[in-house]
Amino acid sequence: MDLVEKIKDKARQEFKKIVLPESYEERTLRAADIIISEKIAQIVLIGEKEKIYTDASRLGLNNISKATIINPYDHEKKDKYVDLMVKLRAHKGLTREEASKLVEDPLVLATVMIKNGDVDGELAGADNSTGDVLRPAFQFVGTKPGISVVSGAFIMILKDKEFGEDGMLVFADCAVNPDPDEQQLAEIAISTAHTTKAIAGFDPKIAMLSFSTKGSAKHELVDKVVNATRIAQKADPSLDIDGELQLDAALVESVGLKKCPESKIAGKANVLIFPDLQAGNIAYKMAERLAHATAFGPVL
Ligand code: ACO
From ligand 1's centre to the CA of 178, what distance in Å? Predict the structure, then answer.
């Protein structure tokens, strides 16, 4: 069974409630229809019912009537959500008046619904930039205990089965942190290990990537990767992680053996942690376009 079918199967068993704040966007509405018809999740759409139903009818989508629809301007929990927002952001000076306006923004409302426990998750970004989707999530949902930095991983399925886990690799951070420091880079590696196990479904072998392999080059950018590797190892000694490694030393067995024969990761990596967002974002798009890889994500 392929990865997407496995994820769908797992989702069907959990049958979680997912909010889609971009319900006026065609691809999102089509996805909602499929999710409902295949019983993958319970769907909550944010928008005006009449417009959503008109769009659904024009597109020939027959399942949208089974979704819960929340009008962002007028719903029973609006005051309660405003209270919650003011409580969460009092230290930043958020007033009731500001919160009452903000909560009408579907991207904000979706995150407040998550925080209040009314939905389990959100899918967005088809019609809005990554930054605009993430900011309210940072402000109103936050991170899980022990994690200070959110990052975005891509599950990459390559045509060439020679690399990674039978052609599957996880890349991070490809979506969020423009220039992580060494502590943040270590956290990105640890979070990505969890994402790999939970979603890609294999044991992570993590390569901390650089333009240097084990001291072949000296530069402060290399030091950042070396230090991040140490921090991650110390924080979670059970991690299979090594760095700094160049991409070929991480992925190609013969190169790994030649450049660092003592490494358990070199030549066998299935998780690639990039030193910054420029590298990570370029890398996943390059694999997609030049190697015709399929990219799933970013999973936060
Ligand atoms: N994890 C957790 N919280 C964070 C993170 C993070 N990675 N980054 C920022 N925050 C929090 C801050 O602590 C702050 O919280 P506070 O208001 O409680 O103090 C809040 O978010 C806003 O922080 P700012 O530093 O003001 O962040 P800003 O809004 O300027 O930027 C953002 C955050 C939007 C994530 C920014 O880093 C960004 O734009 N990143 C790049 C996104 C992007 O364009 N990705 C590439 C495209 S994605 C793709 O191709 C798939």
Answer: 9
Domain layout of the chain by residue ranges: 14-140, 153-299
Enumerate residues lining ligand 1, CB below 6 A.
Answer: 92, 130-131, 134-135, 138-139, 143, 149-150, 175-178, 281, 298
- List the alpha helices (DSSP H) in the chain: 3-14, 26-37, 49-59, 78-89, 96-102, 106-115, 130-136, 182-195, 220-235, 247-251, 253-259, 277-290
Query: Which of ligand 1's atoms lies nearest the C-alpha of 298?
Result: 51
**pTM score:** 0.91
List CB contacts of 89: < 8 A, sequence separation 6 or more. Answer: 99, 139, 140
Distance 276 CA to ligand 1 centre (A): 14
Residue 166 CA, ligand 1 centroid: distance in Å: 33
Instruction: Encode pLDDT of 166-195 as tens digits.
Output: 999 999 999 999 999 999 999 999 999 999
CATH of domain 14-140: 3.40.50.10950
State in words which class domain 153-299 has: alpha beta
Give tens-digit pLDDT for 50-87: 999 999 999 999 999 999 999 999 999 999 999 999 99
